[in-house]
Amino acid sequence: MPLSYAPLQSVIDSTTVNSSVELSLLRLDLFSPLLSGNKYFKLKYNLQRAKKMGFKQIISFGGQYSNHIHALAQAGKETGLATIGLIRGEQQHVLNETLSDAVNCGMTLRFVSRSEYRQRNIPIYIESLKAEYPDAYFIPEGGSNILGVKGCMEIVDHINFHLKGDYDFIVLACGTAATLAGIAAATPEKKIIGFSVLKNATYLENSVSGYLKKMAVTGCNNWQILHGYHCGGYAKINVELANFIHRFVTYHEIPIEPVYTGKMLYGLYQILARGEIPVGSKVVAVHTGGLQGLRGMENLLARKLSSTM
Ligand SMILES: *Cc1c(COP(=O)(O)O)cnc(C)c1O
Predict the structure, then answer these.
(1) Ligand 1 pocket by C-beta < 6 Å: which residues?
(2) Does an H or E element contain 282, and which?
(3) Can you tell me the distance from the alpha carbon of 182 to that of 193, in angstroms, rounded to the nearest whole number?
(4) How many Å lie between the centroid of ligand 1 and the Cα of residue 181?
(5) Are 262 and 294 in contact (CB under 8 A)?
(6) Is the dihedral of CA 92, 122, 196, 147 positive or negative?
(7) 214-227 per-position pLDDT tens digit
């Protein structure tokens, strides 16, 4: 059972003090023990829709460390829906922890070549899969569709439960930016800053505008996406990021991973240090979860760290 509301934790250190900003972290990683982070919200209405329409199976896409695949497998186990994961790349000799968790929840894995995986959002390809799996409800990669965005609007309820609207900024990591679109739609009066975790993902702004348009939200200019903090690209780690995460985790004793929340905080601390957030602002950073994926990255993080010593 998820908690009623995700905890909100105050974060105080030399950067927040020097920049005179009140920072707090919405711990979506602690909200639902099984469906970590934002993926709970992205799946919620998709699962409801699938059940209501009488589907018995759900199919979706993800990489080999995908938080979405991990959450979907858990959700399938809890709701009694069969799940099929179309997984990018070749099957490794031994399944990693993410995928073995998924299999243990009953998910069927099908590995697809990288070139086939690239077609995951192309309608003709989806149609051919639908013909192959006529009984399945399709969810795009990352749970990013309009029902996913609708679910993410509820993240704001968790902030307001604690702060009753008394804050200025919400900051979060962006993969597809569906989560950002939901949050922006739910809080037109706040400022939203997304940190892209991908390199050159200049299409993200269009995706957000597209989601907002589909939800009939107009005049929503409260959000921006910063593109300078990807550290080399998706799931790439550089020495600065590894150092930042090590310092943050040691000082605050809050677990973060380097693919999403770690990168977002790395970016946020740079803009705080440069004084780009007005003095006196109240900033809520969203910890979007994803800690299951850390299991595949701890060695890499440690190597990056030690290369600076
Ligand atoms: C999927 C994911 C995101 C990205 O969410 P989008 O809606 O695709 O932007 C952020 N953080 C974590 C931990 C994730 O698993």
Answers:
(1) 37-39, 67-68, 142, 144, 173-179, 260, 288-290
(2) strand 282-287
(3) 13
(4) 12
(5) no
(6) negative
(7) 998 887 889 999 99
